[in-house]
Design brief:
By secondary structure, the chain is mainly alpha-helical. The chain has 7 helices and no strands.
C-alpha cells in the first residue's frame, strides 16, 4: 500500500517557499541579485546552512524514491529528477566549477532581457511545489483520520 511519508508534504512546502521567495527578484532585481551573489561569494554560515538543508532534503527524497521504487506515486519522480539536478548544482558550486559560477552570474545579470522568464519560471515551479505540498498534507491527514 502506498503511504505519504510525514516529511513529504513538508519537502514540497519548503521547496515551494524557497522558489516563491524569488518574487523578490521581480520586485527588486538589484537587491535580490546582490543578496544571492554575496551569499555565493562569501560562503558564510547562511550559505552552509542552506546547502545542508537542501542536501539533506534531496538525499532524503532520492532515498524515498528508491525505497519505494516498485510502489511510487508520480510526484516522487520529482525527488529523483529534481533532487539529482539540485545535488549536481550543489556539487558544482561546492567544487567551484568556473563554468557553473559563470552560469549563475549570468542568471543574476539584472540587465538580462530573460530575467523575468528565468525567475518567473522558478516562481511558477515554486507555486506548483507549494500547491502539491498542501495537497499531500491534506491527503495525509485525511488518510490518517
Amino acid at each position: 500500500m502506498k503511504k505519504i511519508g510525514a516529511f513529504e508534504p513538508w519537502f514540497f512546502l519548503l521547496f515551494g517557499v524557497f522558489h516563491l521567495h524569488r518574487i523578490w527578484g521581480l520586485i527588486d532585481r538589484n537587491s535580490y541579485a546582490d543578496f544571492w551573489l554575496s551569499i555565493l561569494e562569501s560562503k558564510g554560515a547562511l550559505y552552509y546552512f542552506l546547502m545542508a538543508i537542501l542536501l539533506a532534503l534531496c538525499v532524503l527524497g532520492v532515498g524515498v524514491f528508491f525505497k519505494n521504487r516498485r510502489n511510487n506515486y508520480w510526484w516522487r519522480w520529482v525527488y529523483l529528477l529534481g533532487g539529482s539536478y539540485l545535488l549536481f548544482d550543489l556539487l558544482a558550486i561546492a567544487a567551484g566549477w568556473a563554468f557553473w559560477y559563470e552560469l549563475l552570474c549570468m542568471m543574476f545579470d539584472v540587465s538580462s532581457p530573460y530575467w523575468n522568464v528565468i525567475w518567473g519560471g522558478f516562481i511558477l515551479l515554486g507555486g506548483l511545489a507549494f500547491g502539491l505540498g498542501v495537497k499531500l498534507l491534506l491527503e495525509r491527514r485525511q488518510n490518517k483520520g
